[in-house]
Amino acid sequence: MNSYTVETMLGTDAVSIAYARTNSPKEAAEWVTGRNVQDRRDEAQWVRVTDDTNRVIYKFAYK
C-alpha cells in the first residue's frame, strides 16, 4: 500500500486535503471523496492525488 495526499480542487485552488493509504491513486481519490472518478480533462472541480513516496501527481475528475 502507498501513501497519498488527496486534494479536492476548484480550478487551481485546493478546497480540502486528506490522506489515504491505498493500492492506487484512483482508489485514494474514490475513498476520500466517496465518488467515482475518471481521468481529468478540463473540469473545474477535480481531485489532485500526490504519491507521497515518489511525488508523482495524478489528476482525476468526478464521473
Task: Tell me about this structure.
The chain is mainly beta. It has one domain (2-62). The chain contains 1 helix and 5 strands; from the N terminus they run ββαβββ. It has one helix spanning 25-33; strands at residues 2-10, 13-22, 37-39, 45-51, 57-62. A 5-stranded antiparallel sheet has the order 2-1-4-5-3, with helices on one face. Strand 1 (2-10) and strand 2 form a beta hairpin.
In short:
This protein is mostly beta strands.
Summarize the topology:
Blueprint: E1 2-10, E2 13-22, H1 25-33, E3 37-39, E4 45-51, E5 57-62
Antiparallel strand pairs: 1-2, 1-4, 3-5, 4-5
Oligomer: single chain
Give the biggest beta sheet: 5 strands, antiparallel
Spatial ordering of strands, largest sheet: 2-1-4-5-3
* Rounded average pLDDT: 98
Q: How many domains, in number, for the residues?
A: 1
Question: What is the helical fraction, as a range of percent?
Answer: 10-25%
- Coarse morphology: globular
Q: Strand tally, please?
A: 5
SS content category? mainly beta
Model regions low in confidence, pLDDT < 50 over at least 5 residues: none
Q: What is the terminal separation in angstroms? A: 25 Å
What keywords describe this structure?
about 60 residues; mainly beta
